[in-house]
Amino acid sequence: MKKCVRKVLFPLAFLLFVAVANGQQKTYCNPINIDYGYTPIPNFSNWGRHRATADPVIVNYKGDYYLFSTNQWGYWWSPDLLNWNFVSKKFLRPWNEVLDGRKVYDELCAPAVGIMGDTMLVFGSTYTKNFSIWMSTNPKANEWKPLVDSFEIGGWDPAFFTDDNGKLYMYNGSSNRYPLYGIELNRQTAKPVGTRKEMYFLEDWRYGWQRFGEHMDNTFLDPFMEGAWMTKHNNKYYLQYGAPGTEFSGYADGVVVGESPLGPFTPQSDPLSIKLGGFVRGAGHGATFQDNDKAWWHVATTVISVKNTFERRIGIWPAGFDKDDVMWCNTSFGDYPHYLPGSVGKSKPAGYSPSRYFTGWMLLNYNKAVQVSSTLGGYLPNLAVDELAKTYWSAKSGNAGEWIQSDLGTVSTVNAVQVNYADQDVADDHLGKVNGQYHQYILWYSIDGKKWNVLVDKRKNQKDVPHDYVELDRPVQARFVRLENVHMPTGKFAISGFRIFGNGNGAKPAEVQDFVVLRTEKDKRSAFLKWRPSDDAFAYNIYYGPAPDKLYTCIMVHSNNEYWMKSMDSQKSYYFQIEAVNENGVSKRTAVKQVN
Fold first, then answer.
1. Does residue 527 share a domain with residue 582?
2. N or C: fewer beta carbons within 10 Å in the chain?
3. Is pLDDT at 364 greater than 50 in this prediction?
């Protein structure tokens, strides 16, 4: 928007520059806001250049958090899980930069990262024998050297685990035909100790969530098992794995539990992490780690899969173990603002609790009225507020002055805003990691749509923020919020999610009525759920689990009053609750319902 136009829209007599986003944030919002690289695999970029990464590992090393993921030509470190610093590094030796006559793009595809004493280990997926295992005692300074120049057993989707007795193990596997494998390694030479053993293979005949397909219906492929990770707790070993397919909303991490690092293992029936509804979907192929207060967290891959199958992002959720040593990960409201580690008082409950990290700030503009400066083809305005990361609005250009405005419908309390950029007409030279690019914008707010104040001013921002999340120092009262483009790093000004959080200053929804669960007689993995539609709700959370006190899995359903569920263990009874959601809060949950 040119300056003369801006003066008409926002009369200078009414401008009030309010500093509301300069303090230290205590919250974050998924997907995490890192400078994702552009997929460096040309064969998967024929629908347009786009950002992508997956298969994340976070390890806590000397009090800082280190994040490695697929094909980023480097890694990140953070002191707080909010502010991430990128370290450029290609984990290749001169003799393996080209393999079989082709340039290597995926030297850290689904990387293994482990801690052995005071040393960090890193190794990328490979079936060759000439990839190095790298080691560092100062990864923040990018100081690395090979532990071994060639690793003779290799493996795809590897993971390292060091037991309390110092023994080192590796797990790997990525297949819809073969299981996960595990083996002990010599600490000095990384040579195998003994032979590789089978750990676990999928049982989709029993566990519905392991079925392949967007609707878990095994339409054309057997399910894939991948992404091993090991966690030890209370002298038990929790081997985690991703399934059944990275392109689906039901992408999840499962867990099997054993008494030794190499098994045998017994499955937990339900996924450890899964996110079937909402803006962020999928929670598979990840890793579990502890923060500096010893609280548990789980990081995993989330799904977009529009430009190609492997277009993905990263999410982080609270995790832990209950009194019976059942491992859980809490993805309820998992794409709404949550408190960061250290921001929640230690006096609060340490177990599974939706209220421990969730701020209670609600989404204020789901499918509300939208106005824009221009629209490119079928990338329509309301696609920016439909709670689907796969869809987006695009302006006709990436010029300064393009804008999108959301009407909250009523004057509301605004606590935070998330701006999710989409990749539309990204330049062809954006391949791999692109350093030095940045986004700049201004957020405005208004009570009446006439008098405008600055909410957030990022005209001087020099960071690449594809999923920028801003927590306000103090909340404001607003009905209208406008996002005005100042600078795009590449392509059109396109937004997949213009998400405004706070409280609508009204009544919470009433308790859901007539909740019915009909389990399929011929296939106990599935059930049909239905309830009376609520006039005062735009979404519903369905909680379920194998016991009344273990309803650890949550499904969010928008703008519907039924759900076809296919994720159950056919051999167990289940328990259900449902709650209604609107911009003012959450209803009381229904009584627990048992289904055999």
1. yes
2. C
3. yes
